[in-house]
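Inverse folding, one chain.
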């Protein structure tokens, strides 16, 4: 009896020493692969979610910064009644020119970035839409600034992209005389609003890149702080 048990014990020891069978190895590898794929998918989804959330937050931040900047600079807009008696001698012309897609104005919103630079807080500014030359079909919101006011409103200066990849940008102007909103304004034309400023400016910005592919929509109304022409010592 003891010899039989000894033979059985030796047979079990030899079977155990042979290790795993090929089928057992394949099953173990398959299970390990499945677990690895599931773990990778979970981490990949989390990474994409974080990346999308970061891009969305950046778009919203860009939209808020752009609206805040336009509101500040438009709020400091002005026109001046100080002109030369002879029109040919006018080297500086202040104006407020606006359409539904573009606005050109003079403002006290310039920031001097270089020490001892011969600049004041006055400048010419513009906001307008422009087609992106590098990306076909993309529309951007641009900002133009000229630190020296000349006799050609809306021209010259340096233009930079304020917001990229927008859907639309719309502007309206509140006429203090009629109390109505209009899509055009021209403080230089006798047939329009000669020598006058709008009481408020309405801005509507629609950007691409919102949640689930939707648009980001922002709107604000900017009061013009200096809506009467500057006329120091003029009576």
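Residues assigned per position:
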């Amino acid at each position: 009896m003891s010899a039989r048990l000894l033979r059985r014990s030796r047979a079990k020891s030899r079977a155990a020493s042979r290790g795993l069978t090929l089928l057992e190895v394949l099953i173990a590898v398959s299970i390990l692969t499945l677990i690895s794929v599931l773990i990778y998918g979970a981490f990949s989804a989390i990474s994409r979610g974080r990346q999308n959330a970061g891009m969305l937050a950046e778009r919203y931040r860009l939209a808020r910064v752009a609206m805040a900047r336009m509101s500040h600079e438009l709020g400091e807009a002005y026109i001046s009644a100080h002109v030369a008696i002879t029109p040919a001698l006018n080297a500086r012309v202040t104006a407020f020119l606006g359409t539904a897609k573009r606005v050109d104005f003079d403002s006290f919103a310039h920031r001097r970035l270089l020490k001892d630079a011969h600049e004041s807080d006055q400048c010419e500014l513009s906001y307008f839409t422009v087609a992106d030359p590098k990306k076909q079909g993309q529309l951007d919101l641009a900002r133009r600034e000229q630190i020296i006011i000349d006799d050609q409103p809306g021209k010259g200066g340096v233009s930079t992209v304020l917001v990229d990849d927008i859907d639309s940008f719309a502007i309206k102007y509140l006429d203090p005389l009629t109390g109505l909103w209009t899509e055009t304004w021209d403080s230089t034309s006798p047939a329009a609003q000669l020598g006058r400023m709008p009481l408020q400016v309405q801005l509507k910005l629609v950007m691409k890149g919102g949640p689930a592919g939707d648009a980001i929509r922002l709107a604000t109304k900017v009061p013009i702080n200096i809506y009467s022409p500057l006329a120091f010592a003029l009576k």
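The first helix runs from residue 2 to 17. Helices lie at 2-17, 22-75.
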